[in-house]
Design brief:
EC 2.1.1.-; 8 helices; 211 residues; seven-stranded mixed β-sheet
Length: 211
Amino acid sequence: MNYNIELIKKYFPNLNQLQVEQFAKLGELYTFWNAQINVISRKDMENFYLHHVLHSLGIAKFAQNFKPGTKILDVGTGGGFPGIPLAILFPEVTFHLVDSIGKKIKVVNEVAQSLGLKNVIAEKTRAEHVKDKYDFIVSRAVTRLSNFIPLIRNKLENKDINALSNGILYLKGGDLESEVKEAKVKAELYPLEAYFREDFFETKYVLYIPM
């Protein structure tokens, strides 16, 4: 078993055998598909598990758990992040991954099918065109919060089914105070370095915005 899987198991020691196999397969799947359709910078593929898989799972470290039947929308998923790693970790949660670029959604669908993920729906569409409602909306730094909030404002369920109130779980880095102020929302910032020891996470956060 290689270092990459050990990195995931280090922080998520309770994975079952299927989940270990699915996480292990991610690397070869993205290496193959990234050669056909560029969804991750070629240089960044060397740090694929650290920069993309583990980073995505920062949401799981903060939220800890989602009840079966929870519905999560991943906006601007790109090649499937954070949705695909979260879908492996939470097989009883439904993930709807959307992106406006069809080539990226093709990769997401191929990866999900190869992994046997029955809890993933990937669709080429814009967030503002999504009609359904969700318990949580996740994303990885697709745009400034002031641009993001209007796109998803009416897409959250009113009733909470999890210990964590419904809202946005947004992965972003850098100095976020001015961005949160600009967006005029109440956001709680949780540093990923509280969960992961690698230097990469020093300036990375999960922003939780209950709505």
